[in-house]
Every structure is written in structure tokens, then in C-alpha cells.
Design a protein that fits this description.
6-stranded antiparallel sheet, mainly beta, 14 strands, 4-stranded antiparallel sheet, about 220 residues
Length: about 220
């Protein structure tokens, strides 16, 4: 099957010759909000690369801001449209101004837009993704996404999102924020400056450009400062 891929890569340095710079480098000086009023919560500060998978790209014209800052959750029974659709097999790499570090319990949360079907928490329309982390952007350690049915373990994309900019993520109770929680200790990692999210969906067909994992944002609960 034909797969249309758009690859953009700007890792640590400027794009090499011949690379198309679709996703600009971003920092807080450019006016991007990377923190909520709860100062201990931080968010991704830049898009390092985006590879659009088949039938994806919804809201790609709003990069990088669409995946930076706090999530826009729609609660248990509706999916937010404030997301980037990666497409089937699509991938995005996010960078962080300060490193994610291993602390007690959840270290960071990935937000998608799943929702409960008929209000049943055990029956979720989930579009899954594999999450990996890296300290240098070269060597990656992966949270395995191997589950084929609910509950989906260390896959991202199966917990509804309740946090919004009006009610920001509370690191003291991640369950109130929703999203999929990740603990670096479970994969033996002490710190990471990059998070890679790779669509592993293949469960729910969708019309172009809405296919695949829909990324809302990533919140960091334990950071280097």
C-alpha cells in the first residue's frame, strides 16, 4: 500500500542540506508557553522532527504550537480536536528545555484524545503509540507497546484527558489530569531530553488527514530544575 511520508528532521542543529524545514525550532523566547501556573509542571519546548504517516497530518499547519503547552482535554466521552494526527505509522520527536528526570512515580504524561464508548471505562476508542526517550537524541530506550487489547499497558493513547489550560495538570494527582503516565524507572532511565512518539494504531481506520495517534501534548512532572 502506498504510504505518503513527509519527513522533517532538525535534531539539535540546523537541518542539513536538502532537508525541508517544515517544523521550525522553538524556544520560550519565541513566546511559546511551556509551563502552567503550577511551576513544577513543564511541557515540550520544541518539535525536533515530524514524519507524517499515511492519511495523517490533521493540524500540521499549526505546528509547532499545536503540540506544545498544556493539553486541551475533552473529558471521558469526547475527543479533543486540538491535536496533531500522526497518521498510520507516523512519528514525532519532541525536545525539552530541561531534562525529564526519574522521580517518585509518574515522570511525564502523554496526552492523546481517546474517549470511552458509551461511558464505559473498559471500552475506549484508543489509537495507540509507542513512546521512547533519549538523553542525546541518538540512543533511545522504549516503553514497549505490545498489548493487543484493553488495558494497553505502556502504550500511549488509551486514557481520556481531563486537563485543559483552564484547569492545568496537577502533578500532585496525575489521575485528575488523565492521559498516559510514564515512569523512567520502569525502563532503567535516569534522565531524558527527548520523547519520541510512534503511531502503532492499526485498529481504527480513519479518513485522511485524521488517521493514527492524535498528539495533544506532553507534560513533565519531574524535571532537572
Amino acid at each position: 500500500m502506498y504510504r505518503s511520508l513527509l519527513v522533517v528532521s532538525c535534531l539539535l542543529t540546523a537541518c542539513g542540506s536538502g532537508a525541508e524545514e517544515l517544523v521550525p525550532r522553538v524556544d520560550t523566547d519565541a513566546g511559546v508557553t511551556t509551563e502552567s501556573p503550577l511551576s513544577s509542571v513543564r511541557y515540550a519546548s520544541k518539535v525536533v522532527s515530524f514524519t507524517k504517516g499515511d492519511k495523517g497530518g490533521f493540524n500540521a499547519d499549526k505546528l509547532p504550537g499545536i503540540v506544545l503547552g498544556p493539553p486541551h482535554g475533552a473529558g471521558c466521552c469526547g475527543g479533543s480536536r486540538d491535536v496533531l494526527a500522526l497518521g498510520d505509522g507516523g512519528e514525532i520527536v519532541l525536545g525539552f528545555e530541561t531534562a525529564i528526570v526519574d522521580g517518585p512515580g509518574t515522570d511525564f504524561i502523554v496526552f492523546e484524545n481517546p474517549f470511552e464508548i458509551g461511558g464505559d471505562p473498559n471500552n475506549v476508542l484508543a489509537e495507540l503509540a509507542e513512546v521512547a526517550v533519549s538523553d542525546d537524541g541518538v540512543t533511545w530506550t522504549t516503553f514497549p507497546c505490545t498489548a493487543k487489547e484493553w488495558p494497553y499497558g505502556t502504550c500511549a493513547g488509551w486514557h481520556p484527558v481531563y486537563a485543559t489550560p483552564e484547569s492545568p495538570v496537577d502533578p500532585r494527582d496525575p489521575e485528575k489530569a488523565g492521559g498516559d503516565r510514564f515512569d523512567l524507572a520502569t525502563i532503567g532511565v535516569k534522565s531524558a531530553r527527548f520523547v519520541r512518539i510512534r503511531d502503532m494504531n492499526g485498529r481504527f481506520p480513519a479518513l485522511e488527514p485524521t488517521a493514527g495517534f492524535d498528539l495533544d501534548g506532553v507534560a513533565v512532572l519531574h524535571s532537572a530544575r
